[in-house]
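The protein record passed on for reference:
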Amino acid sequence: MFWIFLAAMVLTAVSGIAIGLLISSLVSESKTAVNIIPVVLIPKSSSGAR
C-alpha cells in the first residue's frame, strides 16, 4: 500500500512541475504566468474531485 501512495505522490509532483514548465514556456513575463495559474489549476482541481 505504501508504494501505491508513493507512486501517486510522485506522479502528482511530476504533473505539477510539468504544468508549471508549460505555463512558463508559453508566456514571456512572470506576472502573466502568475495570472494564468488560477485559470489552469481551478478546472484541474475541480475535475479531479470525484
